[in-house]
Amino acid sequence: MTSIILAIVIGGLFGFVLDRVGATNPTIIGRMLNLTNLSLAKTILLAIGVGSVLMFGGQMLGLVNVGHMSVKAAYVGVFIGGLMLGAGWALAGFCPGTGVVAAGTGRKDALYFIAGGLLGAAAYMVTYPSWKASGLLDSILGGKVTLGLVPGSKFEAITALPGDIMGLVLGLGFIVLAFALPDRLAGQPGGAAQQPAE
């Protein structure tokens, strides 16, 4: 019961933060994806960087049990699915997590997004045997592997480099990138071309 309560509290706090940084607003998502407002992208990079530093730093200090670490297997279908997810995110302005949070804030368009996602998941389940038989779900590049060797984990690594050091370096790189990126890479400073006064 404690685990469920903790999950609800953490999920609620995470949802609150997602909403506060604008991740539940399709307009902000659109501006991020067309590079006219990178505030959300910078926040995402910062969160990934801090999370990586905390996880791998905690692992090095013995505070994090990497035995619970989960690694997604590499297969052609997951790359195709990633492209589809990105396209859907751009079209709808939501990804699965932000769509649920947006629905929680009362956005009706998010309810349609969730319904579409559930319908898509059901269609995938019904057609799963065909996808499995196609070979798109067969592991490639070693299947469940990490970039560097993480001591105590059950996963093989692509390189012989220490995974915890790699995780720290990549995390710090994301943090630096979050602060180094400009506010926009495209468009005018005000988000639209300035019109001369008449």
TrEMBL record:
Membrane-crossing segments per the record: 6-23, 44-67, 73-103, 110-131, 157-181
InterPro entries reported in the protein's UniProt record: Sulf_transp_TsuA/YedE
Annotated Pfam families: Sulf_transp (PF04143)
Record's keyword annotation contains Membrane: yes
Keywords: Membrane, Transmembrane, Transmembrane helix
Protein name per its UniProtKB record: Uncharacterized protein
Organism the protein comes from: Antarcticimicrobium sediminis
